[in-house]
Structure formats: structure tokens, C-alpha cells
Design brief:
This protein is mainly beta. The strands form three sheets. It has a four-stranded antiparallel sheet with strand order 1-2-5-8, with no helix packed on it. The longest helix is centred in the C-terminal third of the chain and has 4 residues. It is globular.
Length: 99
């Protein structure tokens, strides 16, 4: 049974459909995703599904929703402690227009 959802094919995060405990596995049958959770993930929060380096974009809904403030490894919680919001100038350009 799925316990997370990937909202767009290009996303590097998934959204937890229920609270996930350390050591539990993210399961998304439709795309064959099975990955171990490394942090406790609250319901509705994001989990990294491909390594994201400091300064890289966090993609959700196929759109950039923030920039990583440090490296984020697969299975880790993606939230305010490791993501910064977009600057006004970044919001006005497309995802591909800024690093």
C-alpha cells in the first residue's frame, strides 16, 4: 500500500501520506519506489528520493519550491531546517533560469 505520493515525474521529493518512522520504507507501487526513511517524517511532509546537493532546487509538482541549504540525502526529511524559500527575483523566473 502506498504511503507517499510523487506529484510530478521530475520531483526529487515525495509527500508522506501518513507519518513515517525511521527505518520504515517509502512505498509507491505505481513507480516501483521503495526507499528507507532516515528521519521521522510527519504526515504531509516531504522526503528526499534522490540526493540533493546544497544550492540545488527542491522540486515538487514539477516546480522549484525552494533551494537546499545543505546536502540532503535520500530518505531524509525536507523542510525548513534544510530548505530556504525562493527570493523575489527567483520567483519571477522559470525553474531553469536560475541555479
Amino acid at each position: 500500500m502506498n504511503n507517499a505520493i510523487k506529484l510530478h515525474p521530475s520531483d526529487n521529493v515525495v509527500v508522506a501520506l501518513n507519518s513515517l518512522e525511521v527505518g520504515e520504507h517509502i512505498l509507491i507501487d505505481e513507480i516501483g519506489l521503495v526507499q528507507e526513511v532516515k528521519d521521522k517524517i510527519p504526515y504531509g511532509h516531504k522526503v528526499c528520493i534522490q540526493e540533493i546537493k546544497k544550492g540545488e532546487k527542491i522540486l515538487k509538482y514539477g516546480e522549484c519550491m525552494g533551494i537546499a541549504t545543505n546536502d540532503i540525502k535520500v530518505g531524509h526529511h525536507v523542510h525548513v531546517h534544510n530548505v530556504r524559500g525562493l527570493k523575489e527575483s527567483e520567483r519571477l523566473v522559470s525553474v531553469v533560469d536560475f541555479a
